[in-house]
Amino acid sequence: MQAKITVMSISIFIVLFLLNSAIAREVCISCHKTVTPGLVKDWQTSKHHEMDVTCSVCHGKKHNSRKNVNLAQLPDEHVCAQCHETQFNQFIKGKHNLGWTALNAMPVTHLEPDELMEGGRGCGGCHNMGIKTEEQKKELHAKGYRYQNNSCDECHTRHSFSKKEALDPHACQQCHMGYDHPQWEMWSSSKHGARWFAKEAGGLSKDAPAPKCQDCHLPNGTHTNRTAWGFLGVRLPLPKDKQWAEDRITILKALGVLNPQTGKPTARLDVVKAADMVRLTEEDFQAEREKMIKTCSKCHSKSYARKQLEMGDEMLKKTDHLLAEAIKIVADLYQDGILKKPANYAFAYPDFLYFMRTGGGDFKEASYIEQVLFQMYMKHRMRTYQAFFHVNPDYAYWYGWAMMTKDLGEIRELARQMRGTHNSP
């Protein structure tokens, strides 16, 4: 008898729980069909809807009317991790998790309009990815940016959180395109991209190899993404090649990682380490390189894949030589008093992490020769070596290498004119 009562009690509890859950869900849906109809439609077509993952699971139960909207919980990655623990643990090991850290490590970030950074309509729109501290969240909320709180929805957009969407290369396009990292343009116009589009259109068999972004950078569904060279295109230790080592030291000085006067590491090196922007050991670099060769060998021979990646390394060495000469030309202008050191610069030396700004609080732009130098580094050098790794011949030459040589020629001529003007009576 006691057992029957217990079973009945549990049954009643489950019924009441489901009933309350259904009532709460209907309250949310009936209101938000008017306020945010697009979000409701996305949720209704999602797997979360199929599995009865209701609004309160992610947003809590405190917000239940128009009067207490501020009580709605905006879920971060840890909420997703309650069900997707494996993906979360993979994500925190990859560079996507460091998007927000890397953005805030850039000194120029703190000089730009808030709307572009915290507001998410510039760099912050993509670099919002990554786990934030409670202090960072409070700072964002104080500025009214309550939605800047998540990472998973950069690829699985809310509220559909579609796996199919995240596996489409267009999901990568929104961030990996444009001025400094046109990976979308490179891939989509490469043979890899051409085959993927042909396959989607039915021009290739379903079994035909047609690699997209995720196949190479997030293979087998992993959420850990890292690359051998990293975004800045530098690494440690220095190469054995004497000239390349000298050129890379010059670039590291222009990145503010090495003191231009002493050659010793600066505090910025610790920031670069924290943001995982570079591979710091030969073992770490080779580990990432071997992962990529393993991926490439799904379609190509390992020897072919290794040779292609080594060609990319050699091309990076050649771009570094051009860039180092340009940096030294501009650095000499500082040294000779022809270019004045900006107030926010730590040294009288080019600083790439201020981009095209002098570091002042009045949005003052850098001099023209400094702008050409930055363009040479952040636009044309990036395109030269990234195009090699994305197998795009046209980008590697006309959008990259050819433009670097043009930049160097312009910097030489500008420096000559500046010196002539400075020395004229």
Automatic annotation (TrEMBL):
Keyword field: Signal
Name recorded for this polypeptide: Cytochrome C
Entry-linked InterPro entries: Multihaem_cyt_sf (IPR036280), Multiheme_Cytochr_ET (IPR051829)
Native source organism of the sequence: Desulfofervidus auxilii
Residues forming coiled coils: none
